[in-house]
Amino acid sequence: MKYMLLIHPGDSPSPRNPEVWERLSDEEKKAVFDAYQEVSRTAGVTAGSQLQPPEMATTVRVENGTTLTTDGPFAAIKEALGGYLVFEADDIDAAIELASRIPAARMGGAVEVRPLVEM
Asked: What structural domains does the chain harbor?
């Protein structure tokens, strides 16, 4: 089964959150980068891409046949999606274990694990 792992960085340290990121030592920053690289190299992972900051988003709705756009994300910025990956695994337990290795999950953010519908 394939699972989408949606990375919600929240307040986790990353270059996109410079106030928190700069509090980390160079060794801690390297550990975060290394952890993301290790996850990306895991068998069964199809790495996604890091997303631009939420402020770059445009939310689209159609009401009564009219397309409406709003600058910014639909969710509160703190809850916005920061990146994603797809993981092919035997079961959800394997996907949860991989999600737990993503730095955002243990550093103030969260990772949503969602099975994909395969056609």
From this structure: 2-115 (3.30.70.1060)
Taking a C-beta distance cutoff of 8 angstroms, is the pair 108, 12 a contact?
Answer: yes
Residue 48 CA to residue 81 CA, distance in Å, equals 12
- Say how far apart CA 6 and CA 8 lie, in whole Å: 6
Helix (H, G, I), strand (E, B) or coil at 39: helix
How far apart CA 38 and CA 50 sit, in angstroms, is 16
pTM of the model: 0.80
Tokens 């991989």 locate to: 98
Of residues 102, 93, 96, 3, the one with CA closest to residue 46:
3
Q: What is the pLDDT of residues 74-95, one digit of tens each?
A: 666 666 788 899 999 999 999 9
Q: Listing from the earlier edge strand, what are the strands of the sheet with 110-115?
A: 45-50, 83-88, 2-8, 110-115
